[in-house]
Predict the 3D structure of the following.
Amino acid sequence: MNMPNKLTVLRLILVPFYVFFLLMPSIPHHYIIAILLFGAAAYTDHLDGKLARKYNMITDFGKFADPLADKIMILAALACFIQVGLTNAIVLIIIISREFIVTSIRLVASSQGKVVAANNWGKAKTISQIAAVLVVMLLQYILELHSLKCITLGNVAACTYWFDIAGDILLWISVILTLLSGTIYVIQNFDFIKSAK
């Protein structure tokens, strides 16, 4: 297994660790720990692709495992957000639906001996989702710092309200990009859908 593929596997390994800290409010500074772990996982996504292209280490395993690892990383974070009340199920349902559709197209293509790699819209979607998750956790960490008396916020209720609005806006931007990228993906690969038996 080459280095880019090892980084992809590492991304998967990091998922349960940031999920654990994200869901453990009894641990002080749990949000910053989750941010660091999620950020490290997200960075492996950038790094594995860069290394694979630079050193010509692109493999079929990487083409499938890399987007799969991205999906698991993002969907796990959003599922945790629902559990702790930071987003609603509609966001997760839309994103999961898009991923199932795209994965189905990839499977059909694979059955015909073709490998369909991610396109630029899919990459923009992933970046927007990663950014939204990180910002939502960062805003929650600011509130956690206030609760730990590390900082003082003037009007906590107002801060909480505006932080929630900002998080919602970022998450919905990522949902819009998710829908857009999924639609483009279906259009670009419609031949595989038509040829499915």
